[in-house]
Amino acid sequence: MPSLDPTIAPPSGTGPATRARDEKLREAARELEANFLAEMLKAAGLGETPDSFGGGAGEEQFGSFLRLEQARAMVDAGGIGLAQSLFEALKERADGAV
Predict the structure, then answer these.
(1) What is the pLDDT of residues 40-58, one digit of tens each?
(2) What does pTM read for this prediction?
């Protein structure tokens, strides 16, 4: 039985290392989509302090955390499809760099 040369990389798309890399790329793409959506929610005025009966400085400071978590929930629910496009671009770039 011939031994495998450890210096030769396995074909693209196989092995636990490739699956782990793809999972990291997928998570990065999801986080990028969440940050994009958080900025869109901010531009839409979500989390702005009302003029009366607002939460004060604390509400203003922590509003970005609320927007980001709401954006992550949107991504978990399917998002707008940006994460899939980003994942495919990142994967293509990573496959070309290997």
Answers:
(1) 999 998 777 666 666 677 7
(2) 0.73
